[in-house]
Here is the input.
Amino acid sequence: KNQVEQSPQSLIILEGKNCTLQCNYTVSPFSNLRWYKQDTGRGPVSLTIMTFSENTKSNGRYTATLDADTKQSSLHITASQLSDSASYICVVTFKAAGNKLTFGGGTRVLVKP
Amino acid sequence: GAVVSQHPSRVICKSGTSVKIECRSLDFQATTMFWYRQFPKQSLMLMATSNEGSKATYEQGVEKDKFLINHASLTLSTLTVTSAHPEDSSFYICSAGRGAGKETQYFGPGTRLLVL
Here is the structure.
């Protein structure tokens, strides 16, 4: 069973609206939790990175939150733009796995005008 | 900083031929590089970890004789898909580790391989 689960699998939103993506992980402790944006046919690009002790991290219109107690993270996109259409991947680095990256399945976001 | 490039960006080859993909860290030295493959609508799957000057470590189920990895310098790793078959068609992405350990990885733009 994948130790990092993301929801929803896909999402369609109208330009200008906000949306929130979820990431649940099942094993801790971890070194860090990252959110990546992956455009179609491109490699992932890091949006945010949080360590165990951090609760929130922002990067422009992207804000990630982390609740270590419930083992949940979310990525909030504010005032979405057409260029936000991409897959968003939650990646956790688990210490027990030798700091190997564990990828969530991703959420595909489509922003429509 | 922390730019990783891949070459080629896409390649089409005939079944049975070998294809080499290069991964370069352009502005930093990477003692560790990683190779992933990604099928449509799926997430990245780690194939192998390569360390400069030593043999690569392959994930379970990945054939080391089919996917040859060479990490001859601190800025270059290559993945050679030998005797490629249509089922090897995929998106191959490399990443380079920067900093203390594996957790800090910067991804390349990926290489689309189509085997006819």
The mean pLDDT of chain A is 91.
